[in-house]
Design goal:
Residues 17-48 are annotated as: Disordered. Pfam families: OsmC (PF02566). GO terms for molecular function: peroxidase activity. This protein has 143 residues and is of the alpha+beta class. It has 2 domains: 7-40, no CATH class; 48-141, GMP Synthetase, Chain A, domain 3, CATH 3.30.300. The chain has 4 helices and 6 strands. The chain has helices spanning 36-40, 48-70, 111-124, 126-130, and strands at residues 7-12, 19-24, 32-35, 76-89, 92-106, 134-142. A hairpin with a 6-residue loop joins strand 1 (7-12) and strand 2. The longest helix is centred in the middle third of the chain and has 23 residues, at 48-70. It is elongated. The chain starts with 6 loop residues before the first strand and ends with a strand.
Length: 143
């Protein structure tokens, strides 16, 4: 089974003065502005790193939720933030890290079991698999 989801971007004119718009198939994003000023300054809009972070955080949260349910834990709550790091490399830039920070409430689970399940979800969420950057996970388990 294959699932294909689409997103689109339009950018003009070229270079720093250009402005872009990004949209998703679902309509969750529709002509959302992005560009140099939204990426490197504080102009309203989005940027690729923020979009990647939202994809990684949501994918990991869903993967962990399913893994916990499969292990018999269905009462809980997960909050995930992703900090995506963009660094200058030579004449360009590279995404070098996606740090997942997890705050979890999972009733009845022990720390070691939670750590093992969370680590497996980090490794196996589809967005983690596609990234070549370092992927870290910091978590808090609240009981």
């Amino acid at each position: 089974m294959s699932i294909v989801k689409t997103a689109s971007a339009h950018y003009l004119p070229l270079g720093k003065q250009g402005k872009g718009k990004v949209s998703t198939q679902s309509g969750a994003l529709k002509n959302q502005p992005y560009g140099f000023n939204t990426r490197f300054e504080d102009e309203p809009g989005t940027n690729p790193e923020e979009l990647l972070g939202s994809a990684h955080a949501s994918c990991f949260a869903m993967a962990l939720s399913f893994a916990l349910a499969d292990a018999g834990f269905e009462d809980g709550e997960l909050s995930v933030e992703a900090y995506v790091t963009l660094e200058k490399e030579g004449d360009g830039f590279s995404v070098v890290k996606s740090e997942l920070v997890l705050d979890a409430v999972v009733n009845g689970i022990e720390e070691e079991q939670f750590k093992e399940i969370a680590g497996g979800a980090k490794e196996n969420c589809p967005i983690s698999k596609v990234l070549n950057a370092e992927i870290t996970l910091t978590h808090t388990l609240n009981k």
